[in-house]
């Protein structure tokens, strides 16, 4: 089946109080329209977006982020029927057309699939919201098929009592849609070309129109900042449910922000105020403590990320302990059984198996061997003001506290660096390097000063 999705996004969104097109507002770490397109892409062969208000900004974003999405202009917003009509020339008769709204971002792939899999020529996504007032009412015949949608403004008192309303989302046979669009007029209370008039037009032609009911949470629109805030919390709950469904223990499902994709082994747990971005892969029995930010990271079995740590584009092995207050930046690779303690920053650095940097260190452009011990206050001086240089520390070596390793420099295997050293020359295997001012004792100095 050839699915062509038309996304309506020309509306002005006055109540959002923004200079951006309303569908460009952020929601859950991306734009509102990205949610719609990302879901549509999973089910569509082709996508067309109708742009109008601030269309240049919107079209520039779509062109840059979604080159496969076609756009058409609706310069005057004369109604949803008029909006779809702008895409008529792109509709092929053999296509099934899926109508989505650019400002209804949380519609799920499963719901769309259910709608698409209905074999009727037209299928509506309806709902039973707590307050049906603002929506188009679905009027059905005795066999339960929809025969008309009446907008609130045009509805009779009797019709206004109907609890089942239209979400705006539907599928319709491409050929029938193109013909019907020509028959829609604007003789109604809003003087708009209502797409919803399609239902009566097709029904009178004998088309049986089914309804599928949506979970109202999925079809909350983003019309103002209140609704946007509500969407953030619905989205957060949906995402938390995904984590719970994967078997991850959450200390408080309302205080985890999943903004990317997580895959996890058994027995992982996540404490409060954790933000998960990008692609996160957790092994088994991984513990993420509170206030941790993870972005594009892989963490091995039994590792613990202690509170207030920030990991980005990093790989952590098994049985590691990271943090609290650790910062692993891009290109950090922490070997199995290694330990990174508080106020340690790593970047483009490999820490070997069982190696330790327990306190207050900066390790950049470094390769630290297995079981090496990096003392508190160790700094790899990797930047000379123009270029970055590499530091290597051999396995089993010991870097005393408060040492500066001026790169490029190699510390051999099993070597020692005395505390407080500024190391500028390579240190051979098994040797001790001390590079600091010698201690001087002046006996009775203080007494004589008096
Ligand atoms: C529409 C439906 C109503 C349904 C409700 C669900 C019609 C006539 N009514 O009403 O039955 O219950 O959605 O939310 O369709 N848009 C354009 N161009 C236009 C007008 C709208 O692109 O000329 C876009 C808007 O940007 C928005 C969407 O279409 O994304 C819906 O438009 P809106 O004016 O909010 O429709 P409603 O009056 O809410
Ligand atoms: Ca609306």
Which CATH-level-2 architecture of the largest domain? Alpha-Beta Complex
CATH homologous superfamily identity of the largest domain: Spore Coat Polysaccharide Biosynthesis Protein SpsA, Chain A
Major sheet size, sense and barrel closure: 22 strands, parallel
Overall number of domains: 2
DSSP E strands, number: 36
Strand content: 25-35%
- Mean pLDDT metric: 96
| Ligands (ions, cofactors included) | uridine-diphosphate-N-acetylglucosamine, calcium ion
Count of separate DSSP helical elements: 9
Write down the CATH topology of the largest domain: Spore Coat Polysaccharide Biosynthesis Protein SpsA, Chain A
Quickly describe the structure.
With 450 residues, the chain is α/β, with parallel strands linked by helices. The protein is built from nine helices and 36 strands.
Characteristic key phrases:
450 residues; alpha/beta; Spore Coat Polysaccharide Biosynthesis Protein SpsA, Chain A; UDP N-Acetylglucosamine Acyltransferase, domain 1; 2 domains; 22-stranded parallel sheet; 9 helices; 19% helix; 33% strand; elongated; binds uridine-diphosphate-N-acetylglucosamine; binds calcium ion
């Amino acid at each position: 089946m050839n699915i062509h999705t038309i996304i309506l996004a020309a509306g002005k969104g006055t109540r959002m109080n923004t200079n951006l097109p309303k569908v460009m507002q952020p929601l859950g770490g991306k734009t509102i329209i990205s949610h719609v397109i990302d879901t549509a892409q999973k089910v569509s062969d082709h996508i067309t977006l109708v742009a109008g208000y601030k269309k240049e900004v919107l079209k520039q974003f779509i062109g840059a982020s979604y080159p496969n999405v076609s756009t058409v202009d609706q310069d005057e917003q004369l109604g949803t029927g008029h909006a779809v009509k702008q895409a008529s020339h792109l509709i092929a008769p053999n296509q099934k057309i899926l109508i989505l709204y650019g400002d209804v971002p949380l519609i799920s792939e499963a719901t769309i699939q259910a709608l698409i899999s209905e074999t009727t020529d037209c299928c509506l996504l309806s709902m039973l919201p707590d307050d049906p007032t603002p929506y188009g009412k679905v009027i059905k015949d005795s066999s339960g098929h929809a025969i008309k949608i009446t907008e609130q403004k045009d509805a009779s008192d009797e019709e206004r009592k109907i609890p089942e309303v239209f979400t705006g989302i539907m599928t319709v046979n491409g050929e029938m849609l193109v013909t019907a669009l020509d028959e829609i007029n604007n003789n109604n209370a809003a003087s708009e070309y209502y797409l919803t008039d399609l239902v009566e037009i097709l029904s009178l032609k004998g088309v049986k129109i089914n309804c599928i009911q949506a979970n109202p949470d999925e079809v909350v629109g983003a019309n103002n900042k209140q609704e946007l805030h509500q969407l953030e919390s619905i989205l957060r709950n949906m995402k938390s449910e995904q984590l719970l469904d994967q078997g991850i223990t959450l200390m408080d499902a309302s205080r985890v922000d999943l903004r990317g994709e997580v895959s996890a082994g058994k027995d992982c747990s996540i404490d409060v105020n954790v933000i998960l971005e990008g692609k996160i892969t957790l092994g088994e029995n991984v513990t993420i403590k509170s206030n941790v930010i993870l972005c594009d990271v892989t963490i091995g079995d039994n590792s613990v990320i202690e509170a207030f740590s920030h990991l980005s584009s990093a790989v952590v092995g098994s049985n590691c302990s990271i943090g609290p207050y650790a910062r692993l930046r891009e290109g950090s690779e922490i070997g199995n059984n290694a330990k990174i303690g508080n106020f340690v920053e790593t970047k483009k650095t490999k820490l070997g198996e069982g190696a330790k940097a327990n306190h207050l260190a900066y390790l950049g452009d470094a390769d630290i061997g297995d079981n090496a011990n990096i003392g508190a206050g160790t700094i790899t001086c990797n930047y000379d003001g123009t270029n970055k240089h590499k530091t290597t520390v051999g396995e089993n070596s010991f870097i005393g506290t408060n040492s500066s390793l001026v790169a490029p420099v190699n510390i051999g295997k099993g070597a020692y660096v005395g505390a407080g050293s500024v190391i500028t020359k390579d240190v051979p295997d098994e040797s001790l390097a001390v590079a600091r001012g010698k201690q001087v004792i002046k006996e009775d100095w203080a007494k004589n000063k008096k």
